[in-house]
Amino acid sequence: MDDQGYRGRKAVAKALLQFRELELATLADAVPAGREWVHEVKFDGYRTLTVVEDGKVTMFSRSGLDWTAKYAEIARRLKRLKVRNAIIDGEIVALNEHGASNFSKLKDELGAGRSENLQYYVFDLLVIDDQDITGKPLIERKSKLHEIITAQDFENHIIYSEHFAENPDFLPHLCRLDMEGIISKRIDSVYSGRRSKAWLKIKCHKRQEFVIVGFTESEHAARGFRSLLLGYYDDGILQFAGKVGTGFNRDSQFEIRKKLDALKIVPKPFKKLPPDVGRGIWVEPKLVCEVEFTEWTPENRLRHPSFQGLREDKPANAIGRDQATPVQVAEKQADAEVRTQTPAARRRHPSAPLKPSKAGRVDVGGVSVSHPDRVIFPELDLTKLDLVRYYEAVAERILRHVGGRPLSLVRVPDNVDGQQFFQRHLPEHGGLSNVLVVTVPIKNRTEDYMMIEDALGLLSLAQWGGVEFHPWGCRADNPLLPDRMIFDLDPDPGAPWKNVIDGAAEVRERMTELGLQSFLKTTGGKGLHVVVPIERKFGWPAVKAFTRAVAESMAHDSPDRFIANMSKAKRQGRIFIDYLRNDLTSTAAAAFSVRARPGAGVSIPLDWKELKPSLQPSAFNLKTIMSRLNAQKSDPWADYFSLRQGLRADVLQALRIEAR
User: Fold this and answer.
1) Which of 42, 105, 136, 197 is catalytic?
2) Which candidate, 466, 597, 575, 582, places its Cα nearest to that of 524?
3) Do 288 and 313 touch, CB atoms closer than 8 A?
C-alpha cells in the first residue's frame, strides 16, 4: 500500500473508531410475535462498547467513560481478535452458581479489582475492518460478529450472544432461572444509536435505576443507615419514589454511607412526604442505584423494594420512571421505524452515497427531506442534508434545551448568504404538520407560538429551512415564570478576546457569591453565554431587573471593559453584558444549535476549565462538532437539569426588586 493509501485508511479508521451513542431498547409489556423478530437473553450487568484499533482495545461504559482498566482481563483477551479494527457492543457480567448474570456479584468483583472472573457477552457489530456496517440489517451484523468471535478461543470470557426465534415458553423459563428477561430485536433494523422501538426489553421482574436523594439514620451503630430515600426525574422535576431498606450487607452499607457522607446536605426536595421519612437526611442527587420491587402503589411508591447495587454507568439526571409500552403499540411503532430508518453509517459519514427517492427526497429519522443537496453554507460546502443529519444525531441533546418551550426559529430558504427569516409563528397554510410542531397560546398575545416535543418536530423544522433554534427562557406550561437567566457577553470587534474570557469568569464569580451555580457555552459566534438555571418562582420583571443590576454593576466597576448599554456606537472596544435576553419572548440560541452565519458555528456547552485564552469558539462548527461530542467522556452540564436554586430574598430586597 502506498503512503497516500495508508494515510487514507488511517483517516477513515480515525473517523470510524470513536465512542458513539448506543442503541437502547424500549420497555414493553410482552414479547412481540412474528418471524421478523429474534430474541436474546437480557443480561444484568454493565453495557460496554469496545473499540479495537490495530491491536489496541478500548472499552467504554454506556456514557462514554474509558473503563478498559476495570475490564483488564477481558481487554487482554480481545486483542486476539483477527481483525484490523472493529466496534463491538455487548454487556459485561458476572455469573452466579446457576449461570445467571448477577449484578451484585459483578459489583463485588469490580470492587475487589478483579476482572478475571467476568464475562463479556457480545451481541452487535458496528464496524469491521474500516467499514461502518450500522446501516446493515441486524441479522447480517450478528452473522459477521459470530464469525469473528467463534474464530478464537476466548476461554468462556468473550461469548457470542445467541438469538432464538419466537418461543412462547422461553420467557417463563428464563424467569424461573432468575434471569433478567428478554431483548427482542427486529432482524431488519439498523443500528441507529438511540432508544428504539426496533429493540424491545421484556423483564421478568420490575427493576430499574433510581436516584438516591437521602437516607434515614439507623438506631444501631453497626449499620451505616436504616434506609435509602429514592427518586426519579419526570420532565426535569425530581419525584419521590419511596425508600429501600433491604438488600444490603454490612460492607455495602458502609460503602454507601461513605459516599453519602461525601455529598452535600441539601434542604428537603419534596413538599409532601409520608411521616416515616420526615426525619430523612437529604443529599445532592448524585448517586444512582438499582432496585427490584413488586409494583408501584397508588401513591406512586415502590412496594417491597430490594436494593441491588450502585450504578456507575448512568448519570443521575438521566434517571426516569420506566413505563412499559403495550406490545401491540410497540410492534406498530417498530414497523414504522424500520420503514423510515436512515442507516447510521450515512448519517455519520455524509460522504457516503445517497439513495434519494424518485421525488429527489431523502428520509432522515422519519422526515422526508426535500432538496437534500442544496448548499446552505457555501464557505464549507455543507448541504441541507448535512444540517438535518446533524440535528438527528444531536436530537436527544438539543431537545433537553428546546423541547416543551415556546420557540423562535431562524429560517434560511436558500443559503446563509441570502435572505433569512426570524420565525415565531407557524404559517397559516401548509409547510408543516401540526402533529410534529404544535402551537402555544401566550397570555395577552394575539398569536400562538411554535413548540416541539420530539425529534420528529425538530427534524421537520430543519426540513422547513430552520437553521437556528431559539428557545424561550421558560416552559410552555407556564411562560410567565422563567427557569433560567442568561448573560450574553457580546464583544465589540475591537474588544480583546481576553476581556470576554474575564467577563464570563466575573459573571460566574458574582453568581457564586450569590449562591448560584452557573454554566458556560459558546454562542456559536464571537461571544459567550453564562446560563443560570433557577426555580420557577420569579416573574420576568424580577429576573430582568436582577440581570440588569449585575450587568450595570460590572460596567460600573470596569467601564473600560464592559458596558450595559446595547448601543453599538457606545460599545467601542468593550463587551456588552446583554441582560435583555431575560424577558418574555426574548431568546438566545440554544445549546447545540447551528448558527445561520458563514462558518456554520455551533453553540456548544463548555466546562469552566475550558475558559482560557486558548479557547477558540470558531473551532466548534457543523463540520467539527461531532468529533468533540463523540470524544467527550463526561457532560460539562451534567448538573444543569437537576439543579434547584433561586434568587435570594435579601438580594432582591436590597435591589428593590419584587419577586413577581
Assistant:
1) 42
2) 597
3) no
Look-up of cell digits 421482574: 205
**What are the tens digits of pLDDT across the range 455-513?**
888 998 999 899 999 999 999 889 999 999 999 999 999 999 999 999 999 999 999 99
Neighbours of 658 (CB within 10 A): 11
Could you give all domains of the chain from N- to C-terminal order, each with its CATH number? 3-203 (3.30.470.30), 206-318 (2.40.50.140), 354-471 (3.90.920.10), 484-583+593-654 (3.90.920.10)
* Long-range Cβ contacts of 136-140 (<8 Å, 24+ apart): 136/190, 136/343, 137/187, 137/188, 137/189, 137/190, 138/38, 138/185, 138/186, 138/187, 138/188, 138/189, 138/190, 138/191, 139/38, 139/187, 139/188
Residue 132 · residue 341 · CB < 8 Å: no
> DSSP letter at 588?
-
* CB-CB contact of 406 with 419 (8 Å): no
Q: Which amino acid is at 421?
A: F
3-state secondary structure string across 325-388: ECHHHHHHHHHHHHHHCCCHHHHHCCCCCCCCCCCCCEEECCEEECCCCCEEECCCCEEHHHHH
DSSP state, residue 64: S
Distance CA 518, CA 39 (A): 46
Residue 369 to residue 388: CA distance in whole angstroms: 8
Residue 172 contacts by C-beta under 8 Å, 6 or more apart in sequence? none
Q: The C-alpha cell of 482 is what? A: 422563567
What residue has cell string 438499582? 290
- Residue (of 492, 490, 488, 489) closest to 573 by Cα position: 492
| Burial class of residue 355 in the structure, from the number of CB atoms within 10 Å of its CB (0-12 exposed, 13-18 middle, 19+ buried) | exposed
Model pLDDT for residues 71-96, shown as the tens digit of each residue: 999 999 999 999 999 999 999 999 88
What are 394's three cell numbers? 444531536
* Residue 42 annotated to the active site: yes
